[in-house]
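Re: [ENG-882] Designed sequences occasionally contain unexpected residues at chain ends

Forwarding the minimal case from QA. Structure tokens:
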């Protein structure tokens, strides 16, 4: 029996939420109603039988594996009334047009797939499929940590949360994944974007130092962004102690405000490094270590606190040195990222603000060791010569 009109149904949610179980339930009901059914799955999903879709609970239904979305339409028989697609997140974007074409033929299309990848970000073509569907059901699992409703998939590698820059597609058995709620879903090394981008340079005001061209980031903007960074760091290091390794001297003000926003246990240490010469407004790229860490960092989770990263030479030298001392993890948090000046690519995990290529001063940054006390970030006039 052909449907009078086609439709698209989406079954989505995290792993272990019962998506495939629900897909098979609908297919069995369609079979009872004597509908003609075809089921397709991506060949990448080979966890169970290659020609079956199978739920974690063990129920299964025969299926045809296909390598590409474009293979589906030619394989659909003229008398087919129900087409099901499992693990749809693994298909290319063309799968959306395939579903649209089938629905236009009067076919009932049932799609099951993850709405989010292990990072908690939209997965493949699922967002587009959801927008095309007449019916969408989002299922939930049980959080493996707290037992509350779970909507995210946690990937684990050797028992630890997978890092943000790990591959998105790694199909594995249950021991590689578990369901988590928002609070307990962890993605180490997730980039923290500059959500509080500074506005256009505000002209200097009476009473401000004469060398200022203007204010780039206000005191209020600084403190609001530092609160956001503190929340992100606290989430990522939940249940662990972190060593805050501050780069002297510019990072001190940032460190003291940031640590007050942390809810995780932390200790402090310091390094003194310079790549600027007195009176010079650009990093020389020549790194000098004047003060080294005072403790053994082996096995510790180390978060380097920087005031600014521009060429990348300084922080790259720090990372190279610290990595030889075998910390458990090593990350960077910088208040300012002068990305357009980058000469050495370095992994920055937490960024306060991405700024243009200006020479900046204030909130720990200096002009020949002066003006670190300014509560905002200002821009020094081009060509200004400071005479204390």
């Amino acid at each position: 029996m052909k449907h009078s009109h086609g439709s698209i149904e989406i079954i989505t949610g995290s792993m272990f939420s019962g998506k495939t179980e629900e897909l098979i339930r609908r297919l069995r009901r369609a079979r009872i109603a004597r509908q003609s059914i075809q089921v397709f799955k991506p060949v990448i999903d080979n966890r169970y039988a290659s020609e079956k879709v199978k739920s974690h609970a063990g129920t299964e239904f025969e299926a045809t594996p296909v390598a590409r979305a474009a293979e589906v339409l030619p394989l659909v028989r003229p008398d087919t009334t129900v087409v099901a697609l499992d693990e749809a997140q693994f298909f290319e974007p063309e799968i959306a047009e395939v579903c649209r074409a089938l629905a236009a033929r009067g076919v009932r299309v049932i799609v099951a797939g993850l709405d989010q990848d292990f990072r908690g970000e939209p997965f493949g073509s699922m967002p587009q499929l959801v927008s095309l569907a007449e019916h969408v059901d989002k299922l939930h699992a049980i959080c493996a940590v707290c037992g509350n409703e779970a909507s995210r998939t946690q990937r684990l590698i050797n028992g630890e949360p997978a890092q943000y820059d790990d591959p998105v597609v790694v199909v594995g058995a249950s021991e590689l994944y578990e369901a988590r709620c928002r609070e307990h879903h962890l993605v180490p090394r997730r980039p923290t974007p500059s959500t509080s981008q500074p506005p256009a340079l505000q002209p200097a005001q009476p009473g401000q130092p004469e060398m200022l061209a203007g204010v780039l980031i206000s005191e209020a903007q600084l403190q609001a962004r530092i609160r956001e960074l503190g929340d992100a760091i606290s989430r990522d290091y939940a249940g662990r102690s972190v060593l805050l390794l501050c780069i002297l001297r510019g990072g001190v003000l940032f460190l003291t405000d940031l640590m007050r926003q942390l809810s995780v246990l932390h200790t402090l240490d310091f390094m003194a490094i310079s790549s600027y010469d007195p009176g010079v407004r650009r990093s020389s790229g020549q790194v000098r270590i004047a003060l080294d860490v005072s403790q053994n960092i082996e096995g510790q989770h180390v978060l380097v606190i920087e005031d600014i990263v521009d060429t990348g030479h300084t922080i790259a030298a720090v990372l190279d040195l610290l990595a030889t001392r075998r910390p458990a993890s090593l990350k960077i948090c910088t208040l300012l990222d002068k990305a357009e000046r980058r000469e050495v690519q370095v992994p920055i995990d937490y960024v306060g603000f991405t700024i243009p290529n200006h020479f900046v001063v204030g909130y720990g940054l200096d002009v020949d060791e002066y003006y670190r006390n300014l509560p905002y970030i200002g821009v020094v006039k081009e060509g200004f010569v400071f005479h204390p």
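QA comment: On inspection the terminal residues look reasonable. Residues 23 and 289 are 61 Å apart (CA to CA). Proposing we downgrade this to a documentation issue.
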